[in-house]
Design goal:
The structure is a single chain. By secondary structure, the chain is α/β, with parallel strands linked by helices. It has two domains: 176 residues, 3-Layer(aba) Sandwich (Rossmann fold), CATH 3.40.50; 89 residues, no CATH class. Helix content is 38%, strand content 16%. Belongs to the ABC transporter superfamily.
Amino acid sequence: MGIVGESGSGKSTLGAAIGGLLPRTARYAEGAIRVAGESIVDLPAARLRRLRRERLGFVFQDPIASLDPTMRIGAQLKLVLGKGGDPLSHLDRVRLADPRRVARLYPHQLSGGMAQRVAIAIAMAKEPELLVADEPTAALDSQVRQEVLDVVFTLAAAAGTSIVWLSHDLPAVARRCGRIAVMYAGRVVEEGPAKEVLGRPAHPYTAALARSVPAGTAYGTRLVPVPGRPPVLTGRSAGCGFAPRCSFAVERCTTERPPPVRVDSQLVLCHRAGDLS
């Protein structure tokens, strides 16, 4: 499942909520978050730690910050694997050239691409049922980015791990994900099969995102940015959060929050979804 949207749309907050990683000041007003049938909101601390340890994996945007700066890489993997685990084999399967040397290094001695591969090795060491990848390649150059994504999806396929991938890279998400959820102002405004959502978007925001992607634009064609700015999320909006930026908005959009409606294979939050498809 790929989750896409502009910065500030709520992607990282959703990803953190899946693992119960939001700060203690966070408030769950309504709804539920369930992982493997267990409610994250109500789970005691000990059981939540066990769930993270045995069934969840996380790969974050900044790999160096996600590693312990005081421990060698091999020692960090041993903590995850427990007795009898072989850190070198896990470093080898994320395609690090010299696992024995890498195991002796500290995080600050790694390049960005190496550090992200180590983070992936740690996240996938116990073959979790679900991997949350929050912009795992945002800080990497284009060549390394593709190699790291290949590692993530190859390991996940071998282990039977589902992936929730939070990203700005629409073309990459379309190539690698079966389904896509488009977030705006803290809500999923469109969800469905990847090819349908990006090929035939039913929400004006999804269509605007697709038009602004350089990879999908012919040479010499001027890009069409999404007009305006994302809202500052200070509270529940009265109507549709995208209404101030939407050229298709009507009066109803500013006063009434749109409910989910089915348009072909997509679930869409738009009062005019049927008119725009």
